[in-house]
Amino acid sequence: MLSYWEKQSLLHYDYIIVGSGIVGLSAAISLKERAPQSRVMVLEREVLPTGASTKNAGFACIGSLTEILADLQTMPVEGVLNLVNLRLSGLRLLRKRLGDDRIGYRENGSFELIGSREEWALEQLPEVNKILGTLFDEQPAFTRTDEQLPVFGFEQKYIKALIRNNFEGELHTGKMMRALIDTAMASGVEIKTGCPVSSIDDFHTGVNVTVPNHILKEDIVFTARKVLICTNAFTRQLLPGEEVVPGRGQVLITAPVKDLPFKGIFHLEEGYYYFRELDGRVLLGGGRQLDFAKETTTEFHFNDRIQQELEVLLHTIILPGREVTIADRWTGIMAFGKTKQPLVKVHTKNVVMGVRMGGMGVAIGSMIGDQIAVMALNS
To answer: N or C: which end of the chain has fewer CB within 10 A?
Structure first.
């Protein structure tokens, strides 16, 4: 029951992007930067992006010492360097494109808390700095700053050392997403929400993207020269054969804490736990390693065991002996694979994809979006 006018003027695009998170919006902006006259549309299945882009902790990070050491055990040195460089490049593009003020970017310090199980990593610190030196003009990526432990007030019975990451910052996730949306729309990108894509059909001469319309009780079929898939953890709902494994993240945030003794962002246990100061509150998340089976899901539910462990961590190590109230909780869905490399490829002749951010979407999302935009323009 679509009208003649709709069929003539409202269904046809040069580029359609599925997914309005960091990667999707970045790809849309890159397309308009390189091809200003092109018609670009972003389709989002819900009212807001639903995966991790609006639900992360706002870490502008390149990886903690123990995380990079773990990567070096499973990846060649060159692969680790490429991954860290991708994170650095993505953050530079994000900051250059949007501006630090618009995304609330700050450098209040980035630290890793080293417990007894991670003390072995301290001996590897000089070697890791040497490996990463080419990326940081031979400046050390990591330095020991144990003298700040008493200032921060952490429970020193559990924390044996403090490592500072000299090249990480933090940002405000909500402001970042607002800035991405505003930038995309200002460049002429159309963003349509409440549009769950049911199928994508590449006919080689063009692509049909089908969105059910429940009021008209029929499908709306958009057409495009190229389609870009940016659905991260939810990719297999559209493309079942792709190697994308979801990973749910549990998060909580406290009410304002009087005289909170620290600022900045913090990592624990290879990055599986993370926390930060935010508006005088403590935002704390992670713990996926405690229950990988249940957290390998796209369902937005709380894991009571992990939420309880987060509270124990908060009360025993981060703010020992302090009265703290939990103000809110949420979950976000990330995407992983057998390696930490994102999945960036041509799926079919006219369909490209940039998914599987490995929990590093803030850092690498802008660059992955730019890469798939170039692929779509050049293929």
So the answer is: N
